[in-house]
Design a protein that fits this description.
By secondary structure, the protein is of the alpha+beta class. The chain has a domain of 75 residues. It has a five-stranded antiparallel β-sheet with strand order 3-2-1-5-4, covered by helices on one side. A hairpin with a 3-residue loop joins strand 1 and strand 2. The longest helix has 12 residues. It starts with 7 loop residues before the first helix and ends in a 15-residue tail after the last strand. 9% of the residues are buried.
């Protein structure tokens, strides 16, 4: 297999497409990698509606929550992306949960398929000890 060495002057010369040697990966003797990886803490949490609601409920009362039919969620100043199906499940679950107050629903198209719904974290608190704690 022959290799083509590119020099600085060769880079300045335009070469017809058919004269460019084929690129073969994994055949070089030395290589440098500039790749880096990052981790996202949001990906380690479940995005199931019940789990999200429980996490949303830990936020301060009156925290705004906006949910779009396309799957975007904004909780205060944090963003999260869901599938459209999960967004719809979350919307229905939040409508029936006393920890959240409905604020408004906006339809973004004439067919009423694209929407944005807003909730607010309510003042309701479900922190109570089981009755067995008080029995001696």
């Amino acid at each position: 297999m022959s290799t083509t060495q590119l020099t600085h002057s060769a880079l300045r010369t335009l070469v017809p497409h058919e004269d460019i040697p084929p690129l073969t990966l994994g055949q070089t003797t030395r290589a440098s990698s500039f790749a880096s990886s990052t981790t996202s803490t949001s990906s380690i949490y479940s995005r199931a509606a019940d789990d999200l609601i429980d996490r949303f409920a830990t936020h301060q009362p009156q925290t705004p929550i906006h949910l779009w039919s396309g799957g975007n969620v904004r909780l205060g100043n944090m963003d999260l992306t869901l599938t459209t199906h999960d967004a719809e499940l979350l919307m229905h679950a939040m409508k029936g949960d006393e920890r959240f107050d409905f604020v408004k629903l906006i339809f973004l198209d004439e067919d009423r398929e694209e929407w944005k719904i807003s909730f607010m974290r309510s003042q309701v608190s479900f922190i109570s000890a089981p009755s067995s704690v008080f029995e001696f």
